[in-house]
Amino acid sequence: MRIAIAGGGLGGLTLARVLHRHGIDAVVYEREASRSARQQGGSLDLHPESGQQALADAGLAGRFRSAARPEGEEHRIVDPTGRTLVHHEPQPGSFSGRPEIDRGVLRDLLLDSLPDDTVVRDRRLVAATPRPEEGWDLTFQGGHRTTCDILVGADGARSVVRSLLTDVRLSYVATLVELHIEDVDRRHPDLAELVGPGNLWCVGVNQILAAQRLGDGSLRVGVSLRAENRPIDTYRSKRALLDIFGGWDPRLTALIEAGDSAPRPRLIEAMPIGTRWATRPGVTLIGDAAHLMPPVGEGANQAMLDGAELASRLAANPTDPESAIRAYEEGMFTRIHPIAEMSTRVQAMMLSPTAADDIVRFFTPQPAEPSTAG
């Protein structure tokens, strides 16, 4: 099997790593020209049943523990006055929950576990056409061409491979505006103390101001707003963001003022819940290409689990990849449906007029119902 993986994100790299452990070669075609081509985003909490399970299947659980930050699981939720609503503190040094790891660190961990020639860089897939007998002709930006027997779309929200299987349309669900603050302990010790070692959410009406500690001593700041008909360029200035949070405690809005560069807005989109497609020989999808969801903590975890499960299916049935792909897809559809429903509910809850009360209930354990047994 000549396996081509379009996209060198966490899902595609996990797929390649688990295949490699089973003695199956694959080539990952990555659009970025180098590891450092762009900032890789924030920190991820890896769940035991998904992201951590995928790393165990990849033989990387030990390396993950060496690189992860259990203290990053600490989570503070406050209202616009700075009043604490929820404060979750993990057990010191415990990996039993959802320890944090920077996305870039996790990606490097996966990259370093692969043979040097696995990832081919500066290859943005622009077209895939079926070959007369079987397999695919792949065309990349710039005119590069190659062929494969099996094509896996790990190419994210704007997947090119997805169009081979479904014409599903994405829907706009929120706006996210990001800022970055370097060397926060030295330059902004007050903000370092405010955020702590993990995550801070400041919850208002239809809007959230959040900050997240990264392992390199920086903060990633995010402003989440409900989907609306404003031009996205509206949010490219700090002044516009500060106006949105007028009346909030200045200790909180200082997170916006301290940003080291102009705000970076982007639209958050999602696929319809329950999206499925008929299995097509020699092609399938993983991660955001398969089930783009609101970003509430499941996307990377499910992408990695997709990669691990697809690799295991292909390794278990190498002479019948079509059956392996069909079994993977059926399992993935069943697994993702309730997670996509939950993610949609949480996204709506977080950006609602009653978000503060709803989030407190969500994070507060409910007392058990009294027993009626006689």
Automatic annotation (TrEMBL):
MF (Gene Ontology): FAD binding; monooxygenase activity
Name the UniProt record assigns to this protein: Oxidoreductase
Lineage, highest ranks first: Bacteria, Bacillati, Actinomycetota, Actinomycetes, Micromonosporales
Keyword Oxidoreductase set for record: yes
Signal sequence segment: none
Keyword Flavoprotein: yes
Source species of the chain: Micromonospora arborensis
Chain ranges of the FAD-binding domain: 3-200, 282-328
Ranges annotated as biased composition (Basic and acidic residues): 68-78
UniProtKB keywords: FAD, Flavoprotein, Monooxygenase, Oxidoreductase
Positions of the UniProt region annotated as Disordered: 66-100
Any matching Pfam family: FAD_binding_3
